[in-house]
């Protein structure tokens, strides 16, 4: 039977209050009550009401209170499983509903994490980062180097998990920057990378490009068939990668440096620069994702972050620059 908690304690109180308001001739009225109709007679709605009205007011009040308490108990507690109550008897379900309502009403801070220079096949580090993102329901954008794509399925794996792929360059050769290289070399770097991406992900729509070193001439920005993506937060992870024989203490210090470089300056709308080819970046990313989650950030792809702002032939650093 559904009854609200504490109803058995409240009922005597109501009865006592009602009794005090009864007429002093209550017992005389009680003795004059009519008998209950025979059990073999099917009572009609009218007959039930007539006999109910003949009972003393106290009995009617008690019956109504019991009926009311049962209805309230069913309405408020039928969907409260025991595991949602804590040891003090507090209904955790109510607090969960309140928290969910507050979370839905408050807009989340959104940022984009971007990873350059992958994919990293021999240690499958790119796929490991994708798996870490998936634990939180996060997505990121990977700016890839074309000649590193063959030999694995990191790109298709990332896209299947909701992540985004953009162009970085085909060779990433030292000294080849898109503000100084020849037109022939520039188009070769871009087009060959696009071909390598689509070889692994047939029909994939490429919308973004990040120049090597962030360097590109204004004319090439304007004429590009892709949106050009820079960044507003630099993790400086490339300058804090591990080296041979590094101590655990030094490795932990470098991880914390990468994390703090991001968390110390990140804000709503930022685009963060990282590199998925470094082990230190992977280790820092695990901590970084937890910190971002705890501080209420939603991590999305660049295209999701920029939304309708995104256009080919334009340069972006964040949603506010």
Descriptive notes:
- The protein is an alpha/beta fold and 321 residues long.
- The chain has 2 domains: 86 residues, no CATH class; 208 residues, TIM Barrel (Alpha-Beta Barrel).
- It is built from 12 helices and 9 strands.
- Strands 1, 2, 3, 6, 7 and 8 form a 6-stranded parallel β-sheet that branches. A 3-stranded parallel β-sheet has the order 4-5-9, with no helix packed on it.
- Helix 1 runs antiparallel to helix 4 and helix 6 packs parallel to helix 11.
- The chain is globular, with a radius of gyration of 35 Å.
- The two termini are 63 Å apart.
Fill in the keyword field for this structure.
single chain, 321 residues, alpha/beta, TIM Barrel, 2 domains, 6-stranded parallel beta sheet, 3-stranded parallel beta sheet, 12 helices, 9 strands, 45% helix, disordered N terminus
Order of helices and strands: HHHHHEHEHEHEHEEHEHEHE
Largest sheet: 6 strands, parallel
Tally of helical segments: 12
> Structural class of the secondary structure composition?
alpha/beta
Instruction: Specify the helix fraction band.
Output: 40-55%
**What percent strand?**
5-15%
The low-confidence runs, each spanning 5 or more residues with pLDDT under 50, are 1-11, 18-49, 71-93
- CATH topology value of the largest domain: TIM Barrel
Indicate the overall shape.
globular
In CATH's first tier, which class of the largest domain applies?
Alpha Beta
Any guess at the CATH architecture of the largest domain? Alpha-Beta Barrel
Task: Count all strands and give the number.
Answer: 9
In CATH terms, the superfamily of the largest domain is: Glycoside hydrolase/deacetylase
């Amino acid at each position: 039977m559904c009854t609200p908690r504490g109803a058995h304690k409240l009922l005597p109180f109501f009865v006592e209050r009602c009794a005090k308001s009864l007429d002093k001739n209550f017992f005389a009225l009680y003795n004059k009550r009519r008998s209950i109709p025979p059990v073999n007679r099917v009572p009609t709605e009218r007959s039930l009401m007539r006999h109910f009205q003949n009972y003393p007011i106290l009995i009617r009040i008690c019956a109504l209170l019991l009926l009311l308490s049962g209805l309230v108990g069913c309405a408020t507690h039928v969907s409260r499983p025991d595991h949602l109550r804590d040891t003090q008897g507090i209904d955790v379900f109510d607090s969960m509903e309140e928290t969910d309502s507050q979370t839905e009403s408050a807009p989340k801070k959104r940022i984009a994490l971007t990873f350059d220079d992958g994919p990293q096949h021999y240690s499958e580090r790119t796929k490991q980062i994708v798996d870490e993102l998936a634990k939180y329901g996060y997505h990121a954008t990977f700016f890839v180097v074309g000649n590193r794509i063959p030999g694995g399925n990191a790109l298709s794996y990332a896209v299947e998990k909701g992540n985004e792929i953009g162009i970085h360059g085909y060779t990433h050769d030292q000294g080849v920057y898109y503000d100084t290289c020849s037109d022939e070399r520039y188009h070769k770097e871009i087009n060959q990378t696009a071909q390598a991406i689509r070889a692994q992900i047939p029909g994939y729509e490429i919308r973004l490009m990040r120049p090597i070193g962030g360097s590109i001439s204004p004319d090439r920005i304007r004429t590009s068939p892709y949106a050009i993506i820079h960044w507003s937060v630099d993790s400086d992870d490339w300058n804090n990668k591990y080296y041979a024989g590094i101590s655990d203490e030094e490795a932990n210090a470098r991880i914390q440096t990468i994390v703090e470089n991001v968390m110390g300056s990140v804000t709503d709308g930022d685009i963060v620069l990282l590199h998925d080819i470094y082990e230190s970046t992977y280790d820092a990313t695990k901590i970084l994702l937890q910190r971002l989650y705890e501080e209420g950030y939603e991590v999305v792809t660049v295209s999701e972050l920029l939304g309708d702002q995104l256009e080919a032939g334009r340069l972006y650093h964040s949603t506010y620059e």
